[in-house]
Amino acid sequence: MGMPLELNTMIVTKSREKRLEENLFYLEKKGYRLYPIDIPVDVRKEIDGDSHGTGIIKKVEWQNQATFVTYQLLSLNSTN
After folding, report:
1. In whole angstroms, what is the distance from residue 55 CA to residue 40 CA?
2. d(Cα 61, Cα 51) in Å, to the nearest integer?
3. What is the pLDDT of residue 29?
4. Beta strands 18-19 and 40-44, pairing class
5. What is the spatial distance between Cα 37 and Cα 60, in angstroms, rounded to a whole number?
6. Nearest to 58 by CA among 66, 67, 69
7. Looking at residue 77, what is its pLDDT?
8. pLDDT value for 80
9. Helices then strands, each counted (H, E), the chain
10. Measured at the alpha carbon of residue 49, what is the angle toward residues 13 and 53, in degrees to the nearest 5?
11. 13: number of Cβ within 10 Å
């Protein structure tokens, strides 16, 4: 039996993102997920939380029942 595929229209980090460069981040998510590439999407820490900013997904990789997302943070929403 295969693993279900989930379609995601935002990046939910749960504060597990890793910074690769100044505004480039890497995130591992459990399961196989589809993401839109090269269009702006909402970045949030929690699925029902406030928007953290806007990002563009540059690369999505599937391996060992996990999805690896590389994204560029375009704008960061102020917490003030």
Report:
1. 5
2. 24
3. 96
4. unpaired
5. 8
6. 69
7. 87
8. 47
9. 0, 8
10. 60
11. 18
**Alpha carbons 38 and 6: distance in angstroms, whole number:** 19
Under 8 Å between Cβ of 46 and 14: yes
Segment holding 63, helix H or strand E? strand 51-63
- Rounded Cα distance between 65 and 32, Å, is 6
**Per-residue pLDDT tens listing for the chain (80 residues):** 566 788 999 999 999 999 999 999 999 999 999 999 999 999 999 999 999 999 999 999 999 999 999 999 999 887 54
Q: What is the pLDDT of residue 2?
A: 66
- The encoded tokens of residue 2 equal 């295969």
Residue in the structure block whose two tokens are 């375009």:
74
Q: Residue 41 in contact with residue 52, Cβ under 8 Å?
A: no
DSSP classification of residue 3 = P
Q: What is the pLDDT of residue 71?
A: 98
